[in-house]
Amino acid sequence: MKARFLLAMMCGTLIFIASPAAGAEVAAGIVIGEPTGFSLRINQFPVLGFGWSLSHDYMFVNCDYWIINKPLPDADPLFWYLGVGGAVGIGGNESALGCRVPIGLQAVFNRKYELFGELAPGLGLVPDVKLIVQGGIGFRFIF
């Protein structure tokens, strides 16, 4: 049942991409870290992650909005970003919910692909309140 919910969310995202947002810059790829899985960026919002947490045995969905996305001075093609977002985890007999603040670097090459690294500290709210840290490194193709 929970896997079906996550699959439905992923399908909804794909439908969203094929709709009027198709004129937006879309980048899709993989991320390795906590969690490990797929990464999807449509402009600066939404930046979505679908992955599996190897340390917590959860399937996660992250959704972020980049508040800042600016080039680093004298460091072409490097950009830095800062955002806010949320995370939902589903696994075993429980679920997790939290908020996060992604901070990262991305290198964009030839407007065709990007490499990125991100650290996303946050606050887990469910099942208990605690500090969380997510992040990883990844690669996305730009469409």
Protein described:
The protein has 143 residues and is mainly beta. The chain has a single domain, classed as Beta Barrel (Porin), CATH 2.40.160. It is 12% helix and 64% strand. The chain is built from 1 helix and 9 strands, in the order αβββββββββ. It has one helix at 2-18; strands at residues 26-34, 36-42, 47-53, 58-71, 78-91, 94-100, 103-109, 113-126, 130-142. Strands 1, 2, 3, 4, 5, 6, 7, 8 and 9 form a 9-stranded antiparallel β-sheet that branches. The longest helix is centred in the first third of the chain and has 17 residues, at 2-18. The radius of gyration is 15 Å and the shape is globular. The model has no long low-confidence stretch (mean pLDDT 85).
**Main sheet, how many strands, which sense, barrel?**
9 strands, antiparallel
Number of helices: 1
Task: Please estimate the helix content.
Answer: 10-25%
Query: Which percent band covers the strand fraction?
Result: over 45%
The CATH class is: Mainly Beta
Mean pLDDT: 85
Counting DSSP E segments of at least 2 residues, the number of strands comes to: 9
CATH topology label: Porin
Given as residue ranges, the uncertain stretches (5+ residues, pLDDT < 50) are none
What overall geometry do the principal axes of the alpha carbons give? globular
Number of domains: 1
What is the H/E order? HEEEEEEEEE
Oligomeric state as shown: single chain
